[in-house]
Write a structure and sequence with these properties.
Blueprint lengths: L20 E5 L13 H4 L1 H28 L4 H21 L21 E5 L13 H5 L1 H12 L2 E6 L2 E5 L1 H16 L4 H21 L22
Antiparallel strand pairs: 1-2, 3-4
Helix pairs in contact: 2-3, 5-7, 6-7
């Protein structure tokens, strides 16, 4: 009997290829049952900083578009700044809005931090397509925009009044359900947290693509849980 015929020999399957975009969000097992009521207020200093960072993000996006169009390269310093703004925004959202997975105050930093429960990493591309830069952020991304709008921009009619209809985002509804459960039971529903992370991961991947940081088209896939598939 040859080695290939042996029933004891198993062929190992390669794991999923590492993603160039990695979104992490670890649920704090000791998250407070009531802090979510005030964290959105405590994060006000971050909102102010993010307002000015957002202005810089727009300016850098325009410069990067022109740089990629003429050279095929996203200037590294501008790349790191854009990733830093997205990372900062994700940390604040994770802490203060959704999924409210930690009570640890976000750092005032554009840099990555392995010690903080939420983080975002994007691999720097050696070269980007000059042609795609003109269409990927609006035309090619339209299908993803529609999906993201369905769960982040509004998907449930809350009520109508003299001014028209009001809408609540699916993410907001699910986050509210989660924190009410946390308030009552002192436990954050793990499966609901994983699902919320999947929604945010989808949205952030689209933001990375629309920010011109990568050429890989975001997958139409809801990867739930705190870590990317295949990561430790």
């Amino acid at each position: 009997m040859t080695g290939s015929d042996s029933p004891d020999v198993e062929l190992s399957k390669p794991g999923p290829a590492p993603s160039p975009v990695r979104i992490r969000g670890d649920l704090d097992p000791a998250v407070s049952r009531w802090m979510w009521l005030v964290k959105w207020i405590l994060a006000i200093p971050h909102y102010i900083v993010l307002f000015f960072l957002g202005i810089g993000y727009v300016v850098v996006w325009i410069i990067a578009l022109l740089a990629i169009l003429f050279t095929g390269v996203y200037p590294r310093a501008l790349f790191d700044f854009t990733v830093g703004v997205l990372r900062w925004s994700w940390r604040v959202a994770f802490y203060a809005w959704s999924p409210l997975g930690t009570d640890k105050y976000p750092p005032f930093s554009l840099n990555g931090d392995d010690d903080y429960p939420a983080d975002l990493e994007v691999d720097y591309p050696a070269e980007l397509s000059r042609g795609l830069v003109l269409v990927k952020w609006w035309l090619l991304a339209i299908p993803h925009y529609l999906v993201v709008m369905a769960f982040a921009g509004g998907g449930y009619m809350a009520f109508s009044d003299d001014y028209g209809m009001s809408w609540l985002a699916l993410q907001s509804i699910l986050t509210l359900i989660a924190v009410i459960a946390l308030l009552v039971t002192a436990t954050y529903p793990a499966r609901l947290f994983d699902f919320l992370l999947g929604l945010h991961r989808w949205s952030l991947r689209v933001q990375v693509y629309a920010s011109l940081l990568r050429d890989e088209y975001p997958p139409f896939r809801l990867d739930q849980g705190p870590r990317e598939p295949g990561s430790l």
